[in-house]
Amino acid sequence: MDLILRGGNLPDGRTGVDIGITDGRIAAVEPKLAAKGRREIDVTGRLVSPPFVDAHFHMDATLSYGLPRINQSGTLLEGIAVWGELKPHLTVEEIAERALTYCDWAVAHGLLAIRSHVDICDDRLIAVEALLAVREQVKEHFDLQLVAFPQDGYLRAPNAVDNLARALDMGVDIVGGIPHFERTMADGAASVRALCEIAAARALRVDMHCDETDDPLSRHVETLAAETRRLGLQGRVTGSHLTSMHSMDNNYVSKLIPLMAEAELSVVANPLINITLQGRHDTYPKRRGMTRVPELMAAGLTVAFGQDCCMDPWYPLGSAEMLEVAHMGLHVAMMTGSDAMRACFDAVTVNGAKVMGLEGYGIAPGCNADLVVLQAGNPVEAIRLRATKLYVLRRGRIIAKTPPVSASLDVPGRPKAVDFRRVPGDV
Ligand code: FE2
Questions:
Q1: Structural domain count of the chain
Q2: If we measure between CA atoms, which residue out of 191, 204, 209 comes closest to residue 151?
Q3: Residue 415 dihedral angles phi and psi, to the nearest 5°
Q4: Is 212 among the residues known to form the active site?
Q5: Ligand 1 mean position to 421 CA, how many Å?
Q6: Domain for residue 282, yes or no?
Q7: Which of 25, 202, 237, 378 is the most buried (most CB within 10 A)?
């Protein structure tokens, strides 16, 4: 074996597991592996996870915070306005440079797969050009998927219909949309139909910003589910945000969620962004805005959490740290039961991989040796501590490494250096 990680804990609860790696793939996962590795790392008691996955991001806008001005109100609409002011001044080089910087952060945090929407409403399509180049540059380090995203409306923005087709011709992977931003509900529904037909004709996946509003009557997800069934796209369509579901009438939702399950829709909630952008028209109480995550999970839908924004016109914070995303999602959804907390870890790992359709993802013989060793014993502890990523492996190669956090009060009779994560009595 090229490398063996000895004694790790797995997200499914197994402990003391050895993971053997050969030729970039996982060759064995078992206790006390007899084989010897050319290199061996003791990860006893550490959580070894497949890498973090961000199923919803905007890499063309990332790290542009303050350009050309700060979004002072913090609203979605001012963010779209600020982005509109910046767009004419963007260059391919600047977008690519900021995206690559974000990729560095991502790798350091064990985030090795990102689905990024890319705005196609600028006729120059320079964001598409930049991110296609970045996708090629980073492919050895992680998987970058691109969604053709008509930020200003597929039917509302001039040339968006042509630009979206051009972006797909250039090699963008997925068909996007934003039906709630079209001029009318009818236009929104028409955009969903047209975009799903494009995906069916080109054999592509769909991922739409859908109903990102507190308006409970924004029901484009219903059309998305219906079109998915009509066109036989089951399992290939994702509804992102779906924040209007937070405010919908329970009777309507009791019909809607089974329709979504029937269409095998995937869902991506974006906790950091939903909790800050939604509820903006409320006085008090202010709605949380995040979609109905536990209810959708209970109905069998794949639900992932996304970062969505990082230091851009919509969000001044963020760091490519998906445990922060899981932490916020857990709180906003009140998912504090033990299984529910573990489900929040899945929402930034395996569920995101399902949304993206990643092949070879997981910890089993034959899977890609893409792994993260955390300074935590289990998924819940990882979320609680936003744990340090001790090793990040891609195809069996260590591509990032961070020393464990430790501290000591230097009190006589106590150990000199205490592993940060340990609590009294923990062994
Ligand atoms: Fe988004």
A1: 2
A2: 209
A3: -60, 150
A4: yes
A5: 33
A6: yes
A7: 237
Full residue range of the structural domain in which residue 397 is found: 3-50+362-418
Q: How far is the CA of 212 from the centre of ligand 1 (A)?
A: 9
Place of tokens 């260059």: 91
Instruction: Kindly compute the dihedral angle of the four CA atoms of residues 344, 218, 235, 357, in this order, to the nearest 10 degrees.
Output: -50
Distances 146 to 58, 157, 225, 349 between C-alpha atoms, Å: 9, 20, 22, 18
Of residues 40, 85, 94, 212, which has the active-site annotation?
A: 212
In the reported structure, the alpha carbon of residue 370 is separated from the centroid of ligand 1 by a whole-number distance in angstroms of 26
Residue 314 CA to ligand 1 center (angstroms) comes to: 10
Paired sense of beta strands 371-374 and 389-394, if any: antiparallel
Domain annotation covers residue 424: no
Q: How far is the CA of 259 from the centre of ligand 1 (A)?
A: 23
Rounded mean pLDDT for each run of 10 residues along the chain, 427 residues in total: 97 97 98 96 96 98 96 92 93 98 98 98 96 97 96 97 98 98 98 98 98 97 98 98 98 98 98 96 96 98 98 96 98 98 98 98 98 97 96 98 82 69 45
Per-residue model confidence (pLDDT) at position 136: 98
My answer on whether 231 and 339 are in the same domain is yes
Residue 427 inside a domain? The answer is no
pTM: 0.96
Looking at 339, 356, 373, the residue that finishes a domain is 356
Residue 376 in domain: yes
Judge whether 149 and 117 are in contact, CB under 8 Å: yes
Return all residues near 391 (Cβ < 8 A) that are at least 6 apart. 41, 43, 371, 372, 373, 398, 400, 401
**Rounded distance from Cα 57 to ligand 1 centre (Å):** 6
Torsion of CA 140, 141, 143, 146, to 10 degrees: -90
